[in-house]
Write a structure and sequence with these properties.
The complex is a heterodimer of chains A (about 300) and B (about 290). Chain A is mainly α. In chain A, about 75% of the residues lie in helices and about 0% in strands. The termini of chain A are far apart. In chain B, about 70% of the residues lie in helices and about 0% in strands. The two termini of chain B are about 35 Å apart. The chains are: A mainly alpha (about 300), B mainly alpha (about 290).
Chain lengths: ~300, ~290
């Protein structure tokens, strides 16, 4: 009797710690951020003392020039960074999809940039972009060119943070698309070769379409992550010069810590969250649809057999 | 074409591979070499390749935790040694906790069919999408005013465990599904209780999954800056927070900064070399299975 009761309770006991922690430290804070966005709240007040202002924080945000600027900087940054990374990463995967010695060592070296801390990535690049001791300007000077205002001019700074992010995340896309390439059905490749498809033709008409599901997921994952980039930019430019590299995540953190307006920061957080929620749901449903389609094709193929 | 033989490639192809390796590793090598230079060498105009390597910067950074008193350091700043200790405690504790708790939850979800896999992967995705910046305001408010654990290591560990749990549960689930149920049933017939089955039968089988999950958890806990910055005080700062704080000094000592950066980068680099296969498994699983 005691034993069956224990057995019946086991799953709950196994789940309880995780459920409690997620509830207390993740779900609750997320609810809290929604509530906080309706308050005029500064960090020295308890939340109960903060004044309830309804939608005022949101309304103010829409007329807030610098928030709008950071919104567009974020979008521009994400779109440019992710399309560059997809292009380079997938291209490299096609180039390196060969049977060569030391491929796994190569892959190991390539994941280094994304394993090390974003803070350190920012540090390395800040050093390389340094106006006098940085390696870029030194090389330019040694070759007899003018030195460049890497982090000192708005457009250059924007390009600089893009380069650093591309450096860090191309390997991610490279590794995922290489994995996708190497799991393509060999029979299809063989058939294409027998039919006389050239290298380009088999890439364009066979490999790319077959990889598409993985590529789209990779794209969405990377897009979601690119909206979260903060540390690298913080170390490189801290959003400047002006607002040229101030992405939304950075704007939120500055609003909370420098301007001490927690309610406004919460409202910004919710807008960012909404944006990411849409992307995530798109990804989830895309996944579901492709899974269903794969199942259907499998069963159809089975029927035909 | 046999699978074993390696194809012969065009020389240009090897040139491309070498260029890629240089690009991927170059900045890291540059950081390492800078961390071994004296300020004079960093500032000098001559080429950066020829210099006398010195551990001076590392001694300056680690002066308080070294077993000897470095002679080259005149003033010892204890900040970094302390934050290194904090970082280690936080990263290791939160990894261990996340793994234990996540493992149990994943097991319950698989074996007792609580929620569908769909629900779990949706929740995982949802939490994966939440940027730390969004958690900044609520975590600061709740930790400071309600739980009163701001400025403590416990507070930082709690949020790291919560942030990593969904991913860990999700990835371990896909490993636990593959454990044959017959194995567990026979152990149960032999009289093992549910906890014994779990710890003695299931855990040893899913070791590769545990390795992948622990690396990902450790990496996030070790590298995270924003929340640690909001939750820590002078005594509980982690290494990333210390680094960012030291950046605001007017006269940056690049050698010392690079040495701290290198120390922060070393554990992830070691993991990468030891367990790159598990890392790639974890990464591809994350993308391909959604």
């Amino acid at each position: 009797m005691n034993r069956t009761l224990a057995n019946r309770l086991t799953p709950y006991m196994f789940l309880a710690p995780a459920a409690v922690i997620l509830l207390v430290a993740l779900i609750y804070p997320l609810g809290y951020v929604v509530y906080a966005s309706f308050l005029n709240w500064n960090p020295s007040q308890r939340i109960g003392q903060a004044e309830f202002v309804g939608l005022r924080n949101y309304i103010n945000l829409f007329s807030d020039e610098s928030f709008r600027e950071s919104f567009f900087v974020t979008i521009r940054f994400s779109v440019i960074v992710v399309s560059l990374e997809m292009f380079i990463g997938v291209g490299l995967a096609f180039l390196l999809d060969r049977n060569i010695r030391g491929m796994s060592a190569l892959r190991t070296l390539f994941i280094l940039p994304m394993m090390i801390s974003p803070i350190v990535v920012g540090l390395m690049w800040r050093y390389m972009y340094h106006p006098t001791v940085g390696v870029f300007n030194r090389t330019l000077k040694a070759l007899g060119f003018e030195s460049m205002p890497w982090l000192l001019d708005g457009d250059w700074a924007f390009a600089s943070i893009i380069i650093a992010d591309v450096w860090q995340w191309v390997p991610f896309i490279f590794i995922l698309s290489l994995a996708a390439l190497q799991t393509l059905p060999q029979s299809v490749m063989e058939a294409a070769r027998i039919d006389g498809a050239s290298g380009w033709q088999s890439i364009l008409y066979i490999k790319l379409p077959l990889m598409m599901p993985v590529l789209i997921i990779t794209f969405l994952l990377r897009l979601i992550d690119s909206f979260k980039v903060l540390e690298v930019i913080l170390v490189l430019t801290n959003g400047g010069p002006g607002l040229s590299t101030e992405v939304m995540a950075l704007r939120i953190s500055r609003t909370a810590t420098e301007f001490r307006e927690l309610g406004v920061a919460a409202a910004m957080s919710n807008i960012l969250l909404l944006l990411l929620l849409m992307l995530t749901l798109a990804m989830f449903f895309y996944n579901k649809i492709t899974e269903k389609r794969a199942l259907r094709q499998k069963s159809e193929a089975a029927e035909e057999m | 074409m046999s699978k074993k033989a390696y194809d012969k490639q065009h020389p240009a192809f090897y040139a491309l591979v070498v260029a890629m390796v240089l690009m991927a590793v170059g900045p890291i090598v540059l950081m390492l070499s800078t961390s071994l230079k004296l300020t004079v060498d960093i500032m000098s105009d001559t080429s950066g390749l020829f210099f006398l390597p010195t551990l001076h910067n590392y001694e300056a950074v680690l002066c308080k935790v070294l077993w000897y008193e470095p002679q080259s350091v005149d003033y010892c700043d204890p900040t970094f040694g302390r934050s290194l200790g904090n970082s280690l405690i936080i990263a290791i504790t939160s990894t261990v906790l996340t793994l234990i708790i996540g493992c149990m939850a994943a097991y319950a979800l698989v074996r007792f069919r609580f929620m569908g896999r769909d629900t779990v992967s949706l929740v995982t995705l949802m939490t994966r999408m939440v940027p730390p910046a969004v958690l900044l305001v609520p975590i600061f408010g709740i930790w400071t005013f309600q739980f009163k654990i701001d400025g403590t290591l416990v507070g930082i560990i709690l949020i790291y465990v919560a942030m990593n749990l969904p991913f860990v549960i999700w990835i371990l689930q896909s490993f636990i599904v593959q454990v044959p149920i017959q194995l567990e049933e026979s152990a149960r017939i032999d009289g093992a209780g549910p906890f014994q089955v779990f710890f003695l039968i299931v855990l040893p089988i899913i070791k590769p999954g545990l390795a992948a999950a622990s690396i990902f958890t450790f990496r996030i806990a070790w590298n995270e800056f924003l929340l640690a910055n909001a939750l820590s005080n002078r005594n509980t700062r982690t290494v990333p927070v210390t680094i960012v704080n030291s950046l605001s000094e007017y006269n940056l000592d690049w050698g010392v900064i690079m040495a701290t950066g290198m120390l922060l980068a070393i554990p992830p680099i070691i993991f990468t070399f030891v367990a790159s296969r598990q890392i790639i498994t974890g990464m591809t699983a994350g993308a391909v299975k959604g």
